[in-house]
TrEMBL record:
Domain of life: Bacteria
Matches recorded under HAMAP family: ArgJ
Biochemical pathway: Amino-acid biosynthesis; L-arginine biosynthesis; N(2)-acetyl-L-ornithine from L-glutamate: step 1/4; Amino-acid biosynthesis; L-arginine biosynthesis; L-ornithine and N-acetyl-L-glutamate from L-glutamate and N(2)-acetyl-L-ornithine (cyclic): step 1/1
Organism: Seohaeicola nanhaiensis
Subunit structure comment from the entry: Heterotetramer of two alpha and two beta chains.
EC number(s) given by UniProt: 2.3.1.35, 2.3.1.1
Site-annotated residues for Cleavage: A198, T199
Active-site annotation: T199 (nucleophile)
Function (record text): Catalyzes two activities which are involved in the cyclic version of arginine biosynthesis: the synthesis of N-acetylglutamate from glutamate and acetyl-CoA as the acetyl donor, and of ornithine by transacetylation between N(2)-acetylornithine and glutamate.
Keywords: Acyltransferase, Amino-acid biosynthesis, Arginine biosynthesis, Autocatalytic cleavage, Cytoplasm, Multifunctional enzyme, Transferase
Protein name per Swiss-Prot or TrEMBL: Arginine biosynthesis bifunctional protein ArgJ
Family: Belongs to the ArgJ family.
Annotated Gene3D superfamilies: ArgJ beta chain, C-terminal domain, L-amino peptidase D-ALA esterase/amidase
Length: 408
C-alpha cells in the first residue's frame, strides 16, 4: 500500500469536536490486516432500539461484506447492533473464502458482544482480490469490546483510513421541542470515488428517534444530493457503504422535524466535500454548477462529464483556464446540448456565451481565478430549467504516484 506522508493541502485545520451520541460507543485496535503500527479495525456498538439504514455500492462486483449488510438492513432493532470495519483489505472478489470470512467475523463479533449475528454489520476497505486474514480481526474482538467508550469516535475515523491523508468527521446539533438532538459522522475516502456511492465508507450516528423505513428513505434521498454528486476519478468501488444509526436515546422523535433532516444533509454534504478534498493527489476543490439543462438528470450528466474529464482535471491542476475542454466535455456527455446556447463562467468571469468566446473575456482574469484552491465552474445550457451541482478535484502526478504503488 502506498505510504502517504503528506496531508492534503485542502484538509480542514483540525478534526472537529464531535458530540457524544448516547447509545453509541467505539473502539479501535491494531490488527495488522495489512498495515503495521497503526490502527486498522474499529468496532461500534449501538444500544437496543437503534434503527439502522444503509446505502451501498451498486457495483456488480461488490464485496462480501456489502452483500451481507444489504441482506441485514431493516431487521429487528430490539437487541442493538454492532458495526465492525477493517482497512487494508476489501474482502472483494474473494469468492467463497470471502463469504466464509464474513461469516466467521460476524459470528465471533456476536459471541463477544452479545449482539445477534443478524445485527452485526461489517465493512472492509483496501486491496481487492486478496484473501482476508480475518483471524487477525477476530483476535482483537475482546480488546475492542473492553475498550468501548462513547468519545472514541475520532479513533474510529482514523482506523478506517486507507490512502486518506486525514480523518474525516462532521457534526450538527438541532433543537427539537426544546431538547437537543445530536448528529455525528465519520468517513473515509480518497480514491476510487464516483457516484453509485462514491472507495468510501461513511458512518453517521444520531440520538434522535426515527423509524427505520423513514430513516432509509431519507438517507437514500440525501445521498443522491451529496455522496452521489462527488467524483475524484470516475471509478466506483466494490465496497462503498453508508450507514445511518438512530439510537433514539435522546427520547426525541425527529421523524417530522425538518430541522433534523436539514442538519443531516449538512453533515453528509460536509463529509462528501471532505472526501473530495482528500482526493488522491488533490490540490484543488472544484464545484461545478449546471443550469438551463433540459432536465435535472441531464444537468447531472453534464456536470459529471466535466468533473470526470482527465483533460479538464489536468488543466485545473496546471491552473490553465482552458475553457475549450469544458465545451468538449459538454459535447461528449450524451445529454441534450446546443452549441450556440452555451454560457460558461469561471467563478464570476464570463468566458463564453451563445456558442462563442465572450468579447469581454480576458485570459489573464481567468488564469488568476485558477490559482485559487477552491474553484467554481458554471455552465448554462440555455435549454430548460434542469440544474445540478457536483464536486470534484484536480488530477495531479500525486494521483499516479499513489496508485502506481498501491499494492507495494
Amino acid at each position: 500500500m502506498a505510504k502517504i506522508t503528506k496531508v492534503s493541502p485542502l484538509a480542514p485545520a483540525s478534526f472537529p469536536d464531535l458530540p457524544v451520541i448516547a447509545g453509541a460507543s467505539f473502539a479501535s485496535a491494531e490488527a495488522g490486516v495489512r498495515y503495521q503500527n497503526r490502527t486498522d479495525v474499529m468496532l461500534a456498538l449501538l444500544a437496543p432500539g437503534t434503527s439502522v439504514a444503509g446505502v451501498f455500492t451498486r457495483s456488480a462486483t461488490r464485496s462480501a461484506p456489502v452483500l451481507d449488510c444489504q441482506a441485514k438492513i431493516g431487521g429487528d432493532a430490539s437487541e442493538g447492533a454492532a458495526i465492525l470495519v477493517n482497512s487494508g483489505n476489501s474482502n472483494a472478489f474473494t469468492g467463497h473464502r470471502g463469504q466464509m470470512s464474513v461469516k466467521e467475523v460476524t459470528e465471533e463479533t456476536a459471541r463477544v458482544t452479545g449482539v445477534p449475528v443478524s445485527r452485526v454489520f461489517t465493512a472492509s476497505t483496501g486491496v481487492i482480490g486478496e484473501p482476508m486474514k480475518h483471524e487477525r480481526i477476530v483476535a482483537k474482538l475482546d480488546e475492542l469490546k473492553a475498550a468501548q467508550a462513547p468519545e472514541k469516535i475520532k479513533d474510529a475515523a482514523r482506523a478506517i483510513m486507507t490512502t486518506d491523508t486525514f480523518p474525516k468527521g462532521s457534526a450538527r446539533q438541532v433543537e427539537i421541542d426544546g431538547k437537543t438532538v445530536s448528529i455525528a459522522g465519520i468517513a473515509k475516502g480518497s480514491g476510487m470515488i464516483a457516484p453509485d456511492m462514491a472507495t468510501m465508507l461513511v458512518y453517521i450516528f444520531t440520538d434522535a428517534k426515527v423509524e427505520q423505513a423513514r430513516l432509509q428513505t431519507e438517507l437514500a434521498a440525501i445521498c443522491d444530493k451529496t455522496f452521489n454528486c462527488i467524483t475524484v476519478d470516475s471509478d466506483t468501488s466494490t465496497s462503498d457503504s453508508l450507514m445511518l444509526c438512530a439510537t433514539g436515546a435522546s427520547g426525541v422523535d425527529a421523524t417530522d422535524a425538518e430541522g433534523f433532516w436539514e442538519a443531516l444533509y449538512d453533515v453528509m454534504l460536509d463529509l462528501a466535500h471532505q472526501v473530495v478534498k482528500d482526493g488522491e493527489g488533490a490540490t484543488k476543490f472544484v464545484e461545478i454548477q449546471i443550469t438551463g439543462a433540459a432536465t435535472d438528470a441531464d444537468a447531472k450528466t453534464h456536470g459529471m462529464a466535466i468533473a470526470n474529464s482527465p483533460l479538464v482535471k489536468t488543466a485545473i491542476a496546471g491552473q490553465d483556464p482552458n475553457w475549450g475542454r469544458i465545451v468538449m466535455a459538454i459535447g461528449k456527455s450524451g445529454a441534450a446540448a446546443e452549441r450556440d446556447r452555451l454560457t460558461i463562467h469561471f467563478g464570476d468571469i464570463l468566458v463564453a456565451k451563445d456558442g462563442w468566446v465572450s468579447p469581454d473575456y480576458k485570459e489573464a482574469d481567468a488564469a488568476e481565478h485558477m490559482k485559487q484552491q477552491e474553484l467554481l465552474i458554471r455552465v448554462d445550457l440555455g435549454l430548460g430549467t434542469g440544474a445540478a451541482t457536483v464536486w470534484t478535484c484536480d488530477l495531479t502526478h500525486g494521483y499516479i504516484d499513489i496508485n502506481a504503488d498501491y499494492r507495494s
